[in-house]
Every structure is written in structure tokens, then in C-alpha cells.
């Protein structure tokens, strides 16, 4: 995962030298997932933090075999692109789970991955939100490095739009904080 670049950044014109790895993204997603879980617990919500962290750690593990397949690449496949990506990632996940040679552990990990995919539990919703919040933080990082706003504006806008739909208070709160940070990048 340390050696696999996040291909979506490449398709947005970020140089390979500057592109974050899948491992970088996974770590950031884990940290954001922990923060969101703790904020929700602070609000009195029942959140299983261990489950959140396990899910965040595993959410892109299949990319060790499939690499990171960006949405930009999927557009060339039309409507079936996302289905093909899901099928590839499920097959890769099965291969990884079978490779553990521990059916109980493989089953636990596979259930976590399935829970993440369905996005119905508070834990999976938090990890999905953290995954999106990390994209926004990475956009800010690239902007600070001098990449033009126009290069990543579509990604910023689409991701922000999805986060605005969240009904989880901690997600909305962290999203607002990130938007505030991005506002500091604009010339006055």
C-alpha cells in the first residue's frame, strides 16, 4: 500500500512525485475515523470504535492487488465501470482473505468489508465520511503545494456535496472546519 499511488490524483494532473500513496490515505482515513467516532461518542451516540478502526484499516486493502482504480478511469467503461470495479475489489478481497489461512479471521475481515460496502451502520457511515474528508484535506495539501484550484475543483465540489448530505453531526462539523481551512487559501 505504501507503493501504490492514488490514481485519482494522477488523473487530476498531480505529479506522480506528489501523489499520496494508498497507505497515506488509509492512515489519514483511520485518524479521521477515530476523531469522528470520538465526537459521536461525546454526543452520546453508541459507536464501536474498534469496529470503526478495523474497517478504516481494511477499507482499501484490496488495492494491494487491484491498485487504485480512479473514477476518471471508470468513466471510459460507462455505466458498467463501477460494477466492474466492485467485482474486481471483491475478488481481490476474497483472495486476500483466503490467503490468511485462518477461516475465522478471514470471515471477520470479510464481514467488516461487507459492512463497509453496504454503509448502513454508524461505523461504516463514519468510515465513508472519513474517506471523503481525507480527499478534501488532500486537496488543501495540493493547493498549498501550488497546484491550481481549477485542477481539483471538480473533486472538491463533488466530495463536499456528498458530505453536505450527511446527517451525522460530527461529519458536518469536521466538514465545516475543513471548508474554513480551504477558505484561507483564497487570495483576499
Features:
188 residues; mainly alpha; Hypothetical protein af1432; globular
Structural overview:
It is a single chain. The chain is 71% helix and 0% strand. It has 188 residues and is mainly alpha-helical. It has one domain (7-183): Hypothetical protein af1432, CATH 1.10.3210.10. The N and C termini lie far apart (39 Å).
How widely separated are the two ends? 39 Å
The gyration radius over C-alpha positions equals 17 Å
Contiguous helical run count: 10
| Strand content range | under 5%
Give the count of structural domains.
1
Element string (H = helix, E = strand): HHHHHHHHHH
CATH superfamily, please? Answer: Hypothetical protein af1432
CATH architecture: Orthogonal Bundle
Query: Which stretches of 5+ consecutive residues score pLDDT under 50?
Result: none
Percent helix range: over 70%
Write down the CATH topology. Hypothetical protein af1432
What's the count of strands? 0
Give the biggest sheet. none
Shape, principal axes of CA atoms: globular
Indicate the CATH class: Mainly Alpha
Structural class by SSE content: mainly alpha
What is shown here, in short?
The protein is an all-alpha fold and 188 residues long.
How is the topology of this model organized?
Blueprint: H1 7-11, H2 22-42, H3 49-58, H4 63-66, H5 71-74, H6 81-99, H7 103-118, H8 122-144, H9 149-164, H10 169-183
Amino acid at each position: 500500500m505504501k507503493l501504490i499511488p492514488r490514481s485519482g490524483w494522477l488523473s487530476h494532473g498531480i505529479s506522480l512525485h506528489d501523489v499520496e500513496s494508498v497507505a497515506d490515505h488509509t492512515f489519514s482515513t483511520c485518524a479521521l475515523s477515530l476523531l469522528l467516532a470520538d465526537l459521536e461518542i461525546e454526543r452520546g451516540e453508541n459507536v464501536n470504535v474498534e469496529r470503526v478502526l478495523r474497517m478504516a484499516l481494511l477499507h482499501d486493502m484490496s488495492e494491494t492487488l487491484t491498485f487504485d482504480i480512479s473514477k476518471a478511469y471508470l468513466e471510459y467503461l460507462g455505466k458498467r465501470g463501477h460494477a466492474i470495479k466492485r467485482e474486481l475489489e471483491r475478488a481481490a478481497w476474497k483472495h486476500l482473505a483466503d490467503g490468511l489461512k485462518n477461516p475465522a479471521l478471514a470471515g471477520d475481515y470479510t464481514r467488516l468489508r461487507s459492512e463497509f460496502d453496504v454503509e448502513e451502520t454508524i461505523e461504516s457511515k463514519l468510515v465513508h465520511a472519513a474517506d471523503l474528508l481525507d480527499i478534501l484535506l488532500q486537496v488543501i495539501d495540493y493547493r498549498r503545494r501550488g497546484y491550481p484550484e481549477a485542477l481539483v475543483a471538480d473533486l472538491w465540489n463533488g466530495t463536499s456535496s456528498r458530505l453536505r448530505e450527511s446527517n451525522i453531526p460530527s461529519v458536518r462539523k469536521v466538514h465545516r472546519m475543513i471548508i474554513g481551512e480551504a477558505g484561507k487559501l483564497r487570495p483576499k
